[in-house]
Design brief:
Blueprint (H helix, E strand, L loop, with lengths): L16 H16 L3 H7 L3 H11 L3 H13 L4 H15 L8 H7 L6 H11 L6 H16 L5 H15 L5 H12 L5 H27 L1
């Protein structure tokens, strides 16, 4: 048991629901840990997602409970836990590194967009090991060309390929062809993001060619 001294004026903010919920979160984390399944079912909101991520902190043991929920529980728990996944990736990115292989191996199995989307968000921020890159590239191209995938999933798939294209310039031409093919089939949001990604990739490619010529 950890020893804490709470210097709290209970006459101030006792009716403030947000303050009360945060105090409950602190108590659960430090004294008995949070029941994530119960907390996820209480409400589906950014506030609650942040609350859970805060309770997890930097604990790999606690974070694994979120992974277990995503892969083993019934709806709506996995999709809600997937949002926690993305927030923890922002706050404590080191906790997700060990799961990169799992995510790449299983992302296609999910039919729920929220889960797939948040896994792709995570992968777009990671350095992908060489031995996993080919598989991820194939998955991303498949997502981009699928009529079933949402725009958000396609955008993150496009970003992942663009990231990897900096190591594998031969991907640039194929990514351009696939992206141009998808432009009339998707929304204005996809088109805007696609043009931005391709512009950045062209700029990077041109600077690399100039560097080669001057070496």
């Amino acid at each position: 048991m950890r020893n804490f001294v709470f210097n709290l004026d209970l006459t101030v903010g006792i009716n403030n629901k947000s303050v009360f919920r945060d105090l409950v979160t602190i108590f659960l984390f430090y004294f008995c840990f949070m029941n994530y399944k119960e907390q996820l079912l209480k409400e589906h909101s950014r506030i609650n997602t942040d609350r859970i991520a805060k309770a997890i902190g930097s604990s790999s043991k606690e974070f694994k409970k979120i992974i277990d929920i995503i892969y083993n529980e019934q709806a709506p728990l996995p999709q809600r836990a997937a949002w926690v996944l993305a927030v923890v990736n922002f706050n404590q990115p080191q906790l997700l590194t060990r799961y990169i292989t799992l995510f790449i191996d299983t992302v296609k199995q999910f039919n729920v967009d929220a889960i797939k989307r948040n896994i792709m968000v995570v992968l777009a921020t990671k350095v992908i090991p060489n031995e996993l890159q080919a598989k991820l590239i194939n998955v991303c191209f498949e997502f981009m060309q699928s009529a079933e995938e949402t725009v958000v999933v396609k955008v993150h798939a496009m970003q992942i390929i663009a990231n990897l294209a900096k190591e594998h310039p031969e991907l640039i031409g194929e990514l351009m062809l696939v992206t141009e093919d998808q432009l009339p089939k998707n929304t204005a949001a996809f088109s805007a993001r696609a043009r931005q990604v391709l512009k950045e990739l062209n700029k990077w490619n041109n600077s690399s060619e100039i560097k080669k010529k001057t070496e």
